[in-house]
Design brief:
It is a single chain. The chain is built from 18 helices and 15 strands. It is of the alpha/beta class. It has a 7-stranded mixed beta sheet, sandwiched between helices. The protein is globular. The chain binds pyridoxal-5'-phosphate. Pyridoxal-5'-phosphate binds next to helix 5, helix 12 and helix 16.
């Protein structure tokens, strides 16, 4: 146990930012099941070139290379907003009256207000390096679209963002930021694609989903010269880029002679969690340490805790390759009253495999309990958390309260992925007592899972 007194915020030096990404797959005892083409054959690199730029297609399928050099051009941008601080939540510990030590890695210190910039910069760089003209993507809550807008503008690429319609209407300023970085933002479903037109023909009031926005963005990428598609979560390449979070956290904790007993992260598609846990999961797999690793998802979109481990499409239009993952079915639509992100039907294949093999746990949190934790945290630690991040706060506080009962002084590390300044409609609902929890019934989930591809 550490005898050092941790500062409230520990910043590494600029020269301690990782210069290599860590590829957790290289140390996994068993690889995640391969990505499949719609005909059931495992995808090869060339197969996905129409969608992803070449270097990223390579990273996506590379389960072997343990360390991958971060290009200098990417590192130059990382240095503008990294390293991110490792914070000790002294005030929260005191308020909870817990013997536990609570650390969090804060990734909200850039305009996207999230960890998403770590991968956006990398993906935009590789596209530029390949001589491409532009990119398409989707965004839900808006952080990914913002991060990619920043990255595309930096590297001089055009960008078209399909933004889930409910969130487009709820968060006009997200759109304004993306446009400030010269991105073109379109509410999805839209009449600009075949997929979008078909969905609108079936239901003109469809509020959209990440799955639908992905279908639209992919369609435009593969039909526009010089364009490729990029995704901000779920994919192996994104977890790879996000490993900078975990590598920095591990180094900072080492400086404090600390090692986490419990590591907690919110899980939408799994990218921040996959990045945060990467070096600790390596220790666990190699038998060097045995931390508990906990994913926290919304009860309204419970892929890990109530989904099925199966091959599924990554989009609603069923146009993408298939991934073996915990999924609620590609047609699943979380209720519109669920605030913030974490609304994706599937989960990172890497994390799905690790969860399936018993290396990690998952819990689901209800929205009002999440906002209760968010508000307490904001008052004590001065950061207004993103609703997504607040799922991790909820679980960390619950673990700390358990420590209070047992008297154990555990070391808890959680990922504070971002800030919630664009989620004030949800905060207002919570403050006014009008927030509700809409949890899907077993029948609704069964109906959605009915649509899973058969015979795979
Ligand atoms: C996107 C996002 C998440 C969830 O995405 P993951 O890929 O699961 O990490 C969590 N927090 C914030 C702030 C986000 O922007």
């Amino acid at each position: 146990m550490s005898t050092k007194k941790a500062p409230h915020r520990l910043y590494l030096n600029e020269n301690e930012i990782p210069t290599r990404w860590y590829n957790l797959r290289a140390d996994m005892k068993e690889q995640p099941d391969p990505m499949l083409l719609p005909n059931g054959v495992p995808a090869k690199e060339e197969d996905i070139y129409p969608v992803f730029c070449k270097q990223l297609a390579h990273q996506e399928l590379d389960g072997e290379t343990r360390w991958i050099d971060i290009p200098d051009e990417v590192l130059e941008v990382y240095k503008v907003y990294r390293p991110s601080p490792l914070c000790r939540a002294y005030n929260l510990e005191k308020a909870l009256d817990t013997p536990a030590k609570i650390y969090y890695k804060f990734e909200g210190n850039n305009t996207s207000g999230s960890h998403k910039l770590n991968s956006a910069i990398a993906q935009a760089y590789y596209a530029k390096d390949e001589g491409l003209r532009g990119l398409t993507t989707e965004t839900g809550a808006g952080q990914w679209g913002t991060a990619l807008s920043e990255a595309a503008a930096y590297f001089g690429l055009e960008l078209i963002v399909y933004m889930v319609k409910v969130s487009y209407n709820q968060k006009p300023f997200r759109k304004a930021i993306m446009e400030t970085f010269d991105a073109k933002v379109i509410a999805s479903p839209s009449d600009t694609t075949n997929v979008g037109r078909a969905i609108l023909a079936a239901d003109a009031d469809d509020g959209g989903s990440l799955g639908t926005a992905i279908s639209e963005a992919v369609e435009v990428a593969v039909t526009t010269e010089g364009y490729r598609y990029v995704l901000g979560s779920v994919l192996n390449q994104v977890l790879l880029h996000q490993s900078v979070i975990g590598l920095e956290a591990a180094l900072a904790l080492e400086k404090l002679d600390e090692y986490p007993d419990i590591i907690i992260g919110c899980a939408g598609g799994g990218s921040n969690l996959g990045g945060l846990i990467a070096p600790f999961m390596r220790d666990k797999i190699l038998g060097k340490a045995d931390p508990r690793i906990v994913a926290v998802e919304p009860a309204s979109c419970p892929s890990f805790t109530r989904g099925k481990y199966a091959y599924d499409f990554c989009d609603t239009g069923k146009t993408t390759p298939l991934a073996k993952m915990y999924t609620l079915g590609s047609g699943f639509k979380p209720s519109a009253n669920h605030a913030g992100g974490l609304r994706y039907h599937g989960m990172s294949p890497i994390l799905s495999k690790l969860y399936h093999d018993g290396y990690m746990e998952a819990v689901a949190a209800e929205q009002t309990a999440v906002f209760e934790a968010a508000k307490q945290f904001a008052k004590l630690e001065t950061i207004l958390p993103a609703p997504e991040s607040a799922h991790a706060i909820r679980a960390a506080a619950d673990e700390a309260l358990r420590c209070k009962e047992t008297g154990e002084a555990k070391t808890i590390l959680f990922g504070l992925t971002g800030t919630g300044y664009f989620d004030m409609t949800a905060y207002s609902q919570y403050n006014e007592g009008t927030m509700t929890d809409r949890i899907p019934t077993d029948e609704e989930l069964a109906a959605s899972l009915e649509g899973l591809p058969k015979n795979l």
